[in-house]
């Protein structure tokens, strides 16, 4: 391999972040392997024959497989696991098994077979719960409002403990609301903007709970992936937890206005909060991203409008 | 039942805290049931025929049993689960199963069959890790240094979430270093003072890692149990996390001096720190107990010297 290129494993590499990260890492010249539980050939054009050659089918829930696979890699992105705050409340045991046990398997495998690896774990802004004030710094109290968010905190601690006990380096990101190409489409479980764009593209009205004034910190996937790649060459990041967002708030109403700019026929209806959604709604969230900027020199580069335009174009030509 | 008496379930009621709590609650006139995984008739005289009548054998790891058992109780003390920071590092999966799944079973059973119950969960001072300064308030950052401590944090969040989502009341205590009668004897896994007393009573030297200057907040079990009973009649405690300690520091060297006062032949040897013990040693710890005092009016009543005298006398006449 050329100097500077690394052997990189993406666990859960056929998810939203995984696909975008894979493309970027390959473009940067790295040797990238994907591990995925199911090889689902979606209509988004990602799974080319070349990508398929670098994809291994298997689960992080299989400790033996993890023991066998981790050794050769310089960097492991731990993107596998189930997501969904509401689902985790309906079935806490499932969330426990897929998230906590899965990440213990990754860490135990690295402890035994690859303690020199750098691990990157995506946590969530949901660990904060309802912020006392915005923007939210990393030392804000943690008041998780779902089993999913509780287990994100647990997993953060796992990674930090394994660095402390065994020297396995770990970088943790509390990711805000990512959006962009390759997010799973056609369900409201995977990112509200993609769901909104889907509704607009198929000519159905966008439903908003409440008055649409609630703010989110929407981070475009290309900007997010840029941060993930910085971990490879920034040793000082190891052992730290960083907020990863755009550092600004956009209301759902503003987001819809941008969609209407590019898909003018888009309709919106406002609905009352369903009970469970209301209980886990966290109110406005804006990330304080100063720590990340200081340690990496990174700053988000894509405007919300430009990012939405690219995202809409992507979905318009792939899988509506 | 007389007015004011409650139906109370102690999960893990044959443990150290459980036995002392049982005796006190019965003395106060409550109707108390013990659930225990194993009915082990130790030589400490606790398991009388009467107590045995109120003891049910079963595990919190059995969800069906939990569903069947919780309904009639006003208060449930969730004292079951495995303990041991070093053990949890050797087998994180075991700690995950016995602690996290067990407490989810309790909470799910109450959600479905007894949402009006008051639950009391014993967390640990170990959630803080190495304190930045003493005394430690409840809002001190959490830097757990073992899987055991991580899972204590997770379980705290579980209890608070179930109160938030389903109205099940929960009171959480971060317990310092409890000691006194009925602590398991003859092993250094269950409380350092009891281990020291055991060594002194059998005429073996007490081993101290380092110079013995490390301070602990030793809380006598009678004072601790008094706090647990306050939860029954103090509704304002629900939803809170409290430090539970004596609020002062005693060094291991001082503790040994008190043992030598009552068992004059006691020998001490100082040893270098073993590797794993050194990694999870948290340094001095003193609890700030102001919040607990404010909410309950409680204060510890037993001097360290008097508590040690009682504890030594108990072990001297029961199981050496």
From TrEMBL, chains A, B:
Coiled-coil intervals: none
Alphabetized InterPro entries for the sequence: Epimerase_deHydtase, NAD(P)-bd_dom_sf
NAD-dependent epimerase/dehydratase domain mapped to chain residues: 8-245
TM helices/strands, residue ranges: none
A Pfam family that the UniProt record links to this protein: Epimerase
Source taxon at top rank: Bacteria
PANTHER family the record matches: DTDP-D-GLUCOSE 4,6-DEHYDRATASE-RELATED
Family, as annotated: Belongs to the NAD(P)-dependent epimerase/dehydratase family.
Name of the protein in question: NAD-dependent epimerase/dehydratase family protein
Organism of derivation: Dawidia cretensis
């Amino acid at each position: 391999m050329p100097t500077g290129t690394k052997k990189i494993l993406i666990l859960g590499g056929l998810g939203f972040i995984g696909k975008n990260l894979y493309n970027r890492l390959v473009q940067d010249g790295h040797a990238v392997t994907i591990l995925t539980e199911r090889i689902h050939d979606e209509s988004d054009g990602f799974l080319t024959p070349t990508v398929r050659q670098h994809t291994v089918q298997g689960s992080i829930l299989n400790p033996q497989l993890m023991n066998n696979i981790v050794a050769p890699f310089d960097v492991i992105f731990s993107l596998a696991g189930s997501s969904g705050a509401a689902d985790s409340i309906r079935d806490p045991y499932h969330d426990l098994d897929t998230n906590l046990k899965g990440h213990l398997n990754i860490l135990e495998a690295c402890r035994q077979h690859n303690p020199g690896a750098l691990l990157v774990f995506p946590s969530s802004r949901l660990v904060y719960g309802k912020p006392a004030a915005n923007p939210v710094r990393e030392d804000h109290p943690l008041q998780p409002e779902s089993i999913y968010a509780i287990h994100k905190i647990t997993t953060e601690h796992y990674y930090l403990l394994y660095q402390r006990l065994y020297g396995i380096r770990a970088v943790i990101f509390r990711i805000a609301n990512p959006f962009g190409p390759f997010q799973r489409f056609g369900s409201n479980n995977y990112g509200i903007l993609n769901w909104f764009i889907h509704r607009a593209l198929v000519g159905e009205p966008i439903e908003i709970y409440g008055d649409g004034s609630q703010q989110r910190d929407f981070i475009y996937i290309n900007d997010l992936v840029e941060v993930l790649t910085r971990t490879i060459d920034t040793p000082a990041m190891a052992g730290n937890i960083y907020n990863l967002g755009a550092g600004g708030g956009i209301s759902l109403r503003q987001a819809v206005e941008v969609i209407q700019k590019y898909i003018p026929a888009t309709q919106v209806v406002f609905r009352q909060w369903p009970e469970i959604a209301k209980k886990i709604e966290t109110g406005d969230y804006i990330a304080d991203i100063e720590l990340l900027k200081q340690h990496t020199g990174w700053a988000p580069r894509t405007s919300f409008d430009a990012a939405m335009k690219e995202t809409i174009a992507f979905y318009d030509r792939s899988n509506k």
